[in-house]
Amino acid sequence: MAFDGNRDGYINQAEARDAAEFRAGDMTRDGALNPAEFGRVENPREFGQYDSNRDGLVDTPEYERGEAREFDHQRELDWETGNIFP
């Protein structure tokens, strides 16, 4: 199932938000984000971090992995700064 980042068989709120962002950015509806489309929903400077196979496009699995890394990084920052919420 696309955007089921934790592979639990369900789409949680964060995964649904990622899917909606991806669809909003995919102006050509080809299932991948080119650099211009990516820049509509993410920081354009992060394109290379998401495009893991370096084909010039970010497909659904790459976007999903990139968002998971962003979430993990934010969670780590929150822990370090004490911004922890239940």
From TrEMBL:
SUPFAM superfamilies hit by this protein: EF-hand (SSF47473)
Designated name of the protein: EF-hand domain-containing protein
InterPro entries, per database record: EF-hand-dom_pair, EF_hand_dom
Pfam family, one: EF-hand_5
Coiled coil: none
Gene3D superfamilies according to UniProt: EF-hand
Domain EF-hand per the UniProt entry, residue ranges: 2-15, 22-41, 47-65
Source superkingdom: Eukaryota
Gene Ontology terms for molecular function: calcium ion binding
